[in-house]
Structures are given as structure tokens and as C-alpha cells.
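Researcher: Let's do a round of design. I'm pasting the C-alpha cells now; please hold your answer until I've finished.
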């Protein structure tokens, strides 16, 4: 996450500290292992319809399973294929229960059918963003879930410690839109209600890293060859110059190679997408396999200063693939830890292809920002 080239600034910081004071879910009660998510947009009515099946392991006898949901209209709840119900709690939580009886220790499935609204302002949840291309105004639909906004898109255990695998299906409303997500698409087929895009199962990750988009942006693509692996990289932007695309691609390739070498851990996903759109949130977000950028970050005219900023932001977000996504904080009161590491590592890489003073800048400037409040 980068906010105007500084990880902690303004509204986002306030949200984090308010959330740290709220009730936390209990890891000793119920833990998700897998989510199966289906999202179908209804563009005419500015809403989306969803279904999620959550595979959960409970560790003790429970009257109900508590998880997060915010501003979702839940119409059906099933526990182990038996119709149940839910109770709304405070702090954006719900508790799912059987109509009678308790939930025994063991493996269970929770199924929710629901709908939600596209967000425009502020940019939280599933965002509807306006853009102009070739003189025409259109919309792109993109998730923005960090820190605690996944609960606005699907019921979930919306804390970083609750890692799980994700199987995602997206239903494009028409052929105009391409659907993308954290993982590569494995199949696409047409139905009476739209075009279904199914994506490969993800690695275990936190809810805030789940990402998908419905976009008709043009994209630029190249492939990184790294130790026998071929990793496709795509850049989705509007009105990007050839020079910008090539420079951003160069930065992405350098970062993936450097952090893989530095940690001796190869990038664990099979692809990387970068998408830039009009958003009011942070400058960029490190969704695993699908990084989102604020409009103008990747397409700003290239100058000495702007090249440096593009480079640092791209390095920062890709460093999070290791420092934050792979090694993850348990809760948001430790966000300084992942942001501090990512900021240091962006300068560490920049020093490799620039000069050692970049690390000195970090120590004198950003290090203080990342570790002092």
C-alpha cells in the first residue's frame, strides 16, 4: 500500500486505528480454509449479486459462527446444506446459527446468497470508477478491499490472520468487459445470464488481498523469464504511452526477479497484472497477482522525478508479495511492520539500479514515517 508516496497519511490511518479498537474474531473458535465466490454484476441497477461458500473448521461446540458482513443484503444462509439464519451484531459482524441445535467441532460449510451495491465515493469494496477513452465516458469495476472492506463484497472472516484459498468465478455482463482476478483464468463459457470466467484456486491469503475487476481497458503484456519459469505480466491502463508501458514493465520485472533472489523464495503465483483507474484511496494496493494503482501513477509523463516515483511505488507494491502477503501481520495494529519492510525493500532495490543514497533517504525520511506515530 502506498499513499501519496507515504504509507501513513490522512483518512486511511484514521480508519486503521478505529478498526484496531473494534472486536476481533476468535481464532480458537472457527477458521476458514476455502472460499468459493461467484459475483454477477447488474450494471443497469448498480448492484451485484453474489454467492459464497465458506469451508470452515470449528474447534469447539458453538451456538453460532461469527464473521463479518457490511452493507450486504443477505437473502439465504445455509449451514451444511441446512437452512439457517443469522443475527446482526455490532461492528459489522453477523453470527450464523442453526434454527435449532449447536454447531459441533469439525468441518462445516456456510453458504450465503446476497447482493450489494457498487461503490463510487468513497472507494471501498467493489468500486465503480468513471473513465474517458477516445472521447467516450465508460466505467470500470474494481475491488478495493484493504484494510477491512472485503466484508462489503462477500461475507468473510475479514482479518489478516484468517488466511484461506479462494476459488473465484466472475460473470461478465457482456463481451465488452474482460474479467481478471488474482489468479489466471482457467476456463470461460457462455450462459443465458452472461459469460462465466473461472479462475485457478489461489494460494492461502488474507481477505484484503482478494481482487478482481471487470474492465475493457487495453493492456500491454510481456513475459518474465525467471529460472526456467515464464511469468506473464499485463498492464491495464487508458491512454498509456508506449514508453510508459515499457518503463513500468521494466520495473515490474526487476522487482519480481530481485525479491525472488533476495528472499530465496520464488514468486508463488503464476502471473502479475497491474491496473490503473480513478480511485480516491491510496496510491496503490498490493493485491496478490493484481496490483491496483490510482489514475496517473503509471501514465504520468516520464521525467527524471516521475520515473523515480513510478519505480518506487511499483517496487513497494511488489515487495509486499513477500513482505505482507506471504509473511502476514495478524492484525492491523502491526501494519507499520509490513509497510516498514516494504518501504525499506523498495529503496533496497532502487539502490541496486540507482545509488546507495536511496537507502539513506529511507533511513532519514520514510523510516521515521513507517515506525513513528
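Researcher: That's everything. Go ahead.
Model: Designed sequence:
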Amino acid at each position: 500500500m502506498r499513499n501519496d508516496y507515504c504509507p501513513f497519511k490522512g483518512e486511511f490511518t484514521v480508519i486503521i486505528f478505529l478498526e484496531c479498537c473494534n472486536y476481533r474474531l476468535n481464532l480458537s473458535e472457527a477458521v476458514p480454509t476455502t472460499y468459493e465466490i461467484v459475483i454477477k454484476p447488474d450494471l443497469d441497477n448498480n448492484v451485484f449479486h453474489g454467492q459464497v461458500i465458506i469451508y470452515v473448521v470449528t474447534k469447539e461446540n458453538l451456538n453460532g459462527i461469527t464473521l463479518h458482513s457490511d452493507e450486504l443484503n443477505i437473502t439465504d444462509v445455509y449451514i451444511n446444506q441446512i437452512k439457517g439464519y443469522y443475527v446482526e451484531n455490532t461492528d459489522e459482524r453477523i453470527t450464523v446459527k442453526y434454527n435449532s441445535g449447536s454447531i459441533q467441532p469439525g468441518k462445516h460449510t456456510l453458504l450465503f446468497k446476497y447482493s450489494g451495491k457498487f461503490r463510487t465515493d468513497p472507494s471501498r469494496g467493489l468500486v465503480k470508477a468513471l473513465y474517458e477513452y477516445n472521447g467516450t465516458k465508460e466505467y470500470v469495476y474494481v475491488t478495493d478491499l484493504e484494510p477491512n472492506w472485503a466484508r462489503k463484497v462477500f461475507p468473510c472472516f475479514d482479518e489478516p490472520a484468517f488466511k484461506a484459498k479462494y476459488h473465484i468465478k466472475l460473470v461478465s455482463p457482456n463481451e465488452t468487459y474482460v474479467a481478471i482476478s488474482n489468479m489466471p483464468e482457467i476456463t470461460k463459457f457462455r450462459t443465458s445470464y452472461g459469460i462465466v470466467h473461472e479462475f485457478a484456486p489461489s494460494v492461502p491469503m488474507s481477505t484484503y488481498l482478494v481482487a478482481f475487476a471487470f474492465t475493457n481497458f487495453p493492456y500491454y503484456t510481456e513475459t518474465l523469464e525467471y529460472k526456467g519459469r515464464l511469468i506473464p505480466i499485463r498492464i491495464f491502463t487508458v491512454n498509456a504511452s508506449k514508453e510508459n508501458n515499457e518503463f513500468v514493465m521494466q520495473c515490474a520485472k526487476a522487482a519480481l526477479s530481485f525479491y525472488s533472489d533476495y528472499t530465496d523464495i520464488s514468486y508463488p503465483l503464476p502471473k502479475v497484472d497491474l491496473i490503473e483507474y480513478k480511485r480516491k484511496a491510496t496510491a496503490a494496493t498490493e493485491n496478490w497477482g493484481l496490483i491496483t494503482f490510482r489514475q496517473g501513477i503509471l501514465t504520468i509523463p516520464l521525467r527524471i522525478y516521475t520515473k523515480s516515483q513510478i519505480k518506487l511505488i511499483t517496487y513497494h507494491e511488489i515487495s509486499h508479495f513477500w513482505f505482507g502477503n506471504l509473511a502476514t501481520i495478524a492484525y492491523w495494529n502491526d501494519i507499520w511492520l509490513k509497510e516498514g519492510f516494504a518501504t525499506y525493500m523498495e529503496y533496497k532495490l532502487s539502490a541496486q539500479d540507482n545509488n546507495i543514497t536511496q537507502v539513506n533517504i529511507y533511513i532519514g525520511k520514510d523510516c521515521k514515517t513507517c515506525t513513528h506515530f
